[in-house]
Amino acid sequence: MFLQYIVNGIFYGATLALPAIGLTLIFAVLRFPTFALAAHLAVGAYAGYVLNVWFGLPVVPSYVFAFIVAGLVGVVGDEVAVKPLDGRGSLSVAIVTIALSIIIENVMRFSFGNELRGFDVPLYRDAVFGGVRFGFQQVINFGAALVIMLVVFGFLTFTTLGKAMRAVADNPSLAALRGINPHFIRRFAVFLGMGLAGLGGALIAAETSVDPLMGTRTMLPIFAAAILGGLGSIPGAVLGAIIIGIISETALMFIPPTYRSAVSFFVLIIVLSFRPQGILGDLKK
Amino acid sequence: MENYILGILTTSGVYALLALGLNMTWGVTGIANFGLAGFFAVGAYAAAIGSTVLGLPIWASALLSIAVGGLFGLLVSMSTIRLRGDYLAIVTLGFTEVIRLVASNETWLTKGTDGISGIPGPFRGQVTPTEYNMISLGIVTLVVIAALIFCVRLVSSPYGRVLRAIRDDEGVAMAAGKNATMFKLQAFVIGAALMGLGGAVYAHYTSYISPDLFRPLISIYIFLALTIGGSGNNFGAVLGSILLLVLLEGSRFVMEWVPGLTGVQSAAMREAIIGLVLIVMTRFAAQGILRERNKQY
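ok -> structure tokens follow
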């Protein structure tokens, strides 16, 4: 029984990992945590839903579409609302990104209503190995999350653009001296980060359902994961997401499931009190 | 119609208390507190439980709300006030969510999503509804004036000067020998206590509360009210709350003129408009209508 909670925790953590990577990636380049991320989960989920249910396409192209649409919405929002605030302090940015999130969520609500909508995915019986149940969609999502993580790692490590992004994250003025265009890198980081959030949203929606507030509900675990791992560190975000997933699920042995996101809050408070730089974070930055 | 107008004015009085609390934390001291809806909820539930379960008179349950609001403010700020502003923003947002979870699930204490009804209001049942609304508006106005006097005196005192100095440059304030963390903690607690008082006034006025009323959106409404009125200026906080209600209710009428919208759609449009106005105000008119006065130290 205990093993079941651990397995559920790892699956839950894997769905949190992609938005957490998005959050940490945007933080690494822009130096602030964006609260608009939550709404982009819903954007991606609805984009995937439209392609999957209205146009009858399979899930994989729907996931790609979710990534692209959420990424583009993210770039437009950043250019129009957030970027002009440069130099106005992190709290003005916090207010504006929350307001942006509210606007985007309400556009979703206006277009699709409040009701829960599900993806058109085949239903399979849960597989059982050694007394532990594995949901079909969960396994698919886990695999998808794993592949996407490897792609992101590979991109940041081996491509010129990825290296440029890490250079800007490490030292913006040095990167600018080397001729890296910071505006382009910012746009690309937001596209990638919000795209990953949208993709994560689509994965969650395929497993459960989509509604306008799904991102806001998942926001606390995502932030807890990214901060626990160390904001700005991508391996940290993955590690943080898995730990948050396991803690949240195993806590369900003692508390009712409705309190699952409250667990993240208490983990967050503990991390911020004792190790605000997170597990893999670097406070000097 | 007159009940509608009286009701709006009373509600803007409640918002004014919340805005004064937010002004204390954010406007004067520069601490991000997105937990406003949570402290508002805590105050409202303290008043509701205090008067319906413990049988406290209204003035006593209002005092209880102030104390409970302040206590929760202390709990939230104690572990996090030293942190960077954006971390505090996350924690306070999370606090609102946890309070809503507790209010929805701990049925033995809060009656869950059914909410608590039958909260006594001053002279409710003994007078006509219109008279009740007029009495409520009178009481709320007095409470707001008292809170306003308290805040204005506090901000213009040497104590308030320290808070503003911390907001503008924490390093300088500390170099001048001020324990910035202690002052920030106190400002946060005072703000949370005022928000708790707002909750008490709201609960006693409407007689019914439920977890749904304390959505995080309330925090954004009040940030907007404060930004419109003038962040850092207590009179601005009150003025902004009245203007916020004009905006909220005005957009309701505008939406009725748009044909073919469902209820959900017009509600979504109104919330999106609030978000849009907040972004535009923050970018182009961050000082608001009543600018902060007495800037010299």
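Chain A has eleven helices and two strands.
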